[in-house]
Amino acid sequence: MRSPRDKVIITCAVTGNLTTPEQTPHLPITPAQIADACLGAADAGAAIVHIHVRDPLTGRPSMLLDHYVDVVERIRARNPELILNITTGPGGRFVPSKDDPKVAAEGTTLMVPEKRVEHIAALRPDICTLDLNTMNSGREVVINTPANVRRMAKVIVDAGVRPEIELFDSGDIALMRDLNADGTLQGPILCSFVMGVRYGFQPGPETVLYARDLLPSDAEFTAIGIGKAAFTTVAQSYLAGGHVRVGLEDSAYLARGQLATSNAEMVAKARRIVEDLGGAIATIADARQIVGLPAPATKVAV
């Protein structure tokens, strides 16, 4: 059994790659908007910000290094201590052609593992995500084979970046344990349970406790609720001994029928939930100690 933590890290995922501008007019799209959203989330209490980038003209997800550099430089110029967690999720989606399923159809993003993490090697953020899921995702398939995950992990580790392992179902935890056992992953695990994505972990207190109890005893975890589960999962994760995450990547709504007007507004609500339950929010310095991160770099390496 784990008790609630003395200090709880709030992560804010400010834009993601699935939320669309049609769903909410408050979604940050340009590098300036994404950076401002990260800084506003930090002011509201987030110690970690999770970053995707988008094409400023279309609003569609992007993997362009220049966009990442722009966002990171803008954040670092104003808040060099803030913990940056950059995605490596894009590049694993496969859409089979109707008449020949081994041929990729429009919407496929599948690429070589090293290409998916080249921005991590260039930017060397504090943290980056590493997805272990091979699963149905809506009408498509996400593919992260053990061999490809190991190739991505090598680039991440060689860059001196702390991987946050994203877990979408219990089989992902089994793979994570194998990666830990063979030395692909080092030290205490930092991970998150992503709940509410069709067809992975479904949100609920039973899921949080089940997934938590499959982890190594020294792992740091966050339970993430997608959509309407975003804020109930904040409470469930805290009570189960985990950290919390919110943001427009995970949900466009602050409450039923009420769009969130900013990521900062979502962080403020998550903070109230944790504090009302008796918890304390980790500062950036606290979070660096909890996660095991060194002092922040002063400039972006490209």
How would you describe this protein?
- The protein is α/β, with parallel strands linked by helices.
- The protein has ten helices and 17 strands.
- The protein has helices at 31-44, 65-78, 113-116, 118-123, 146-158, 170-181, 205-212, 230-239, 263-276, 284-291; strands spanning 7-8, 10-13, 48-51, 53-54, 61-62, 83-86, 93-94, 127-131, 135-137, 140-142, 162-167, 190-195, 220-225, 243-246, 253-255, 258-259, 280-281.
- An eight-stranded parallel beta barrel has the order 2-3-6-8-11-12-13-14, surrounded by seven helices. Strands 7-10-9 form a three-stranded antiparallel sheet, with no helix packed on it. Strands 1-17 form a two-stranded parallel sheet.
- Helix 1 packs parallel to helix 9.
- The longest helix has 14 residues, at 31-44.
- It starts with 6 loop residues before the first strand and ends in an 11-residue tail after the last helix.
- The mean pLDDT is 95.
Unreliable sequence segments:
none
Strand content: 15-25%
Which strand order do you get reading across the main beta sheet? 2-3-6-8-11-12-13-14
- Computed CA radius of gyration, to the nearest angstrom: 18 Å
The count of DSSP E runs of length 2 or more, i.e. the number of strands, is 17
Mean pLDDT over the residues: 95
Compute the number of helices: 10
- Kindly, what is the distance between the CA atoms of the first and last residues, rounded to a whole number of angstroms? 44 Å
The general outline is globular
Query: Which structural category do the helix and sheet elements fall into?
Result: alpha/beta
Order of helices and strands: EEHEEEHEEHHEEEHEHEHEHEEEHEH
State the share of residues found in helices, binned by percent: 25-40%
Biggest sheet architecture: 8 strands, parallel, barrel
